[in-house]
Amino acid sequence: MKIKPLNLLLISFLVTSFTLAKGQKSSNNLNLSLLLDLSDRIDPKKYPSLYQRDLQYIKSVQKAFTNHIKGKKIIQLNDQMQVFFDPEPQNPTINSLSQQLKVNFNKKSGKNEINSLDKTYSDIPAKIYQSAIKDKTYLGSDIWRFFKNNVKDYCIKDDYRNILVIITDGYMYHQNSKFTEKNKSSYITPAFIQAKKLTTSTYRQLIEKGGLGFITATENLQNLEIIVLGINPSKNNPYESDVINQYWADWLKSMGVKKYHLKNNDLPTNLEPVILKIISRK
User: Fold this and answer.
1) Assigned domain for 1 exists
2) Based on the structure, what is the number of domains in the chain?
3) What is the chain's alpha carbon radius of gyration, rounded to the nearest angstrom?
4) Cβ atoms 108, 53 nearer than 8 A
5) Theoretical Cys-Cys bridge with 226: which of 38, 127, 202, 260, CB 3.0 to 4.6 Å?
6) Which UniProt keywords apply (predicted)?
7) Residue 13: inside a domain, yes or no?
8) Which of 14-18, 103-107, 134-138, 215-219 is most confident?
């Protein structure tokens, strides 16, 4: 039996409408994760006030999340936010505090829960950083291994818009994840950049010709958006920022990430509108 052209158009319209409706549902549920770098980059003696910027970045991310859920009807709420570390801090205080930052909002959530989010994300992250600084046992941040072992399980959910915000200086290093495969590595440091002679305007050609970059840690991350905040390159090399950004961009693309934003360390007042704009996009 032949299908009339009018019926074909109707079928096409219904299929398109269903697809769009499904996509809208997916993008309107927000699954927002933060991965915090608690290495010695937050040591106030080495880098005065840097950890304070971290706290402001976290507040900006929380503000974007709060704006998102307040823009929905209560009955439509199905959104969550959480904070991760890798490796997991041995300090039980930090682990206990981080649990308070895992929030989930649904149609049963009350306005008081939503309104308390601002205070929670003002007080708890500050206590976490202060505890880490007081201990002076900076375990570092194993971002590469987090992607290899945990990012899919922890940060990606079906029917959600999944966003992972990483607050770090852009260098990647941990003693338990330092290895190479041919010319690719699981780490990058100022000394590494110097050793590879990535200190001139030819850095891109050297990276391409030498096959340099991060080792791909996983794959199929098409449903995960990445925001990196606080990239803080050494001032000794005018191309340090470019090299770090190239490494990160190539790495994320190699794992299938379609949307990513790499932002250098800047005043929180400058970055907040940028963060709000990125997270508010569908």
Assistant:
1) no
2) 1
3) 21
4) no
5) 260
6) Signal
7) no
8) 215-219
pLDDT-based confidence at 7, cuts 50/70/90? low
Q: Is the pLDDT of residue 23 over 50?
A: no
Q: CATH number of the domain at 82, please.
A: 3.40.50
* Banded model confidence at residue 13, pLDDT cuts 50, 70, 90: very low
The tokens for 166 are 């990483």
Distance between CA atoms of 277 and 282, rounded to whole angstroms? 10
Task: Determine contact, residues 80/103, Cβ cutoff 8 Å.
Answer: yes
pTM > 0.85: yes
Residue 17 pLDDT > 50, yes or no?
no
Whether omega before 273 lies within 30 degrees of 0, making that bond cis, reads no
Contacts of 128 (CB under 8 A, 6+ apart): 36, 38, 94, 97, 98
Do the domain assignments include residue 217?
yes
Asked if residue 87 belongs to a domain, the reply is: yes
- Output the 3-class SS for the chain: CCCCHHHHHHHHHHHHHHHHHHHHHHHHCEEEEEEECCCHHHCCCCCCCHHHHHHHHHHHHHHHHHHHHHCCCHHHCEEEEEEECCCCCCCHHHHHHHHCCCEEEECCCCHHHHHHHHHHHHHHHHHHHHHHHHHCCCCCECHHHHHHHCHHHHHCCCCCEEEEEEECCCCEECHHHCCEECCEECCECHHHHHHCCCCCCCHHHHHHHHCCEECCCCCCCCCEEEEEEEECCCCCCCCHHHHHHHHHHHHHHHCCCCCEEEEECCCHHHHHHHHHHHHHCC
